[in-house]
C-alpha cells in the first residue's frame, strides 16, 4: 500500500452495523485473560465518545445446530453441551487452563457465532457496507476441540455462511498476534477462501503453527499465506510487512468480500505475547483493511474481534478505533478519554494507571519493503513472498507486486 490509509477519508461516513448485546458478557471463563470486561469497557468508551451513534445496532441471535454442524462435529457439540453443565468436565480441549468450563458455555459461544454470522450476511446481502462483532474472532477452535480460549469458531461459521450464500472468493486477513490456525485448517484445501495471517513467529508463541511454508493443499494450494513476525516488531515494521504482502495477495485473489480478525494482542503492553505495536499502529492497521475493502470488495468488510489482554489500556481504545473506522468517522488519537469512563472504572475499584488520550502519540511511518534486506523482519517478509506469491502468479522479488 503506497499511501497512508489514514489519509483516505469517507466524507459521508460508512453504512455499518455493530452486532452487540449484553449477553455476550456471558462468555466468561472466570479468572482468566479472556475476560468479558474488555468488551464492556470498549462499548462504554465508544458510547461516551459518540462512536455508537454512527452505527446501526443489531441484537445477536445464536447460531443454530445446523449452522454449527457445518463447522464442528456432532460429537464435539455434544461435548460442549455436557461441559456447560459439568464443572469437572475434561475432554476435547475443554476443562484445561486455556479453556475452563463454565455454566452456559454452549449458549454463550453459540451466541457469538450467530453474531458473526449475522455480521457477514448483513454485508453480503447488501444491508450494510460494513459490519463488526467485537465479541467474535475466536479463531483457534477446531472441528473437534476447543483451543486457545476459543470454544466455537465463529469466524468459520461466518465464512461458511458467506459460501452458502454464493460467495466464491472470500479473503480472510488475521492480524492477531497468534496464528489463525482454526480458520486456516477449515479452509486449507478450499480455493474459495484466501487466509492471510500475520502473527508472531510460531517458534516463539502459541499455537506453534503458521510458517510461510503452510500454503494450502490440493485445490487450495496457494490459498493460505502466513507471515511470521519476529518478537519486538513495532508499528513501522509490522505495517511494512502488512503492506509487502496483503495488498499484492488481494490484487491477485480479487476477493468479493473481506473478513478480518482484529485481535489487538500485538500491543507492546500485552501480557501474553511479544510484539510491540502501539494503539496508533493498530489503528493504522484497521484503516488499511478498510481502504483495501473499498479497493477490492466494493466496500464489503466484516470485522471481528479476537485476542487482546491489555484490558484497561489497550483493548477499549483500540477497538473503539475499530468501531470508529468501520463507521467511516475516525476518532483523532489526540482525543481525551472521557472523564466519565475513567470515573466508572474508579467506581469499580480500579486503581491502575489509565490512559488519558485515545492514542499514544506516535504516527507510524513505515518504509516500503524492498528485496534483499538482511534483518529478521525483512527475511520473514521475503520468506512469505517466496512461498506464496508464485502460487498467486506474482513475482516475489518485485516490490510492485
UniProtKB/TrEMBL annotation:
Domain Histone deacetylase, first and last residues per copy: 32-324
SUPFAM superfamilies, per database record: Arginase/deacetylase
InterPro entries (alphabetical): AcuC (IPR003085), HDACs (IPR000286), His_deacetylse_dom (IPR023801), His_deacetylse_dom_sf (IPR037138), Ureohydrolase_dom_sf (IPR023696)
Domain of life of the organism encoding this protein: Bacteria
Metabolic or biological pathway: Ketone degradation; acetoin degradation
Keywords annotated in UniProt: Acetoin catabolism
Keyword rRNA-binding attached: no
Similarity field: Belongs to the histone deacetylase family.
UniProt-listed PANTHER family: HISTONE DEACETYLASE HDAC1, HISTONE DEACETYLASE HDAC1-RELATED
Name of the protein in its database record: Acetoin utilization protein AcuC
Species in which this protein is naturally found: Jatrophihabitans telluris
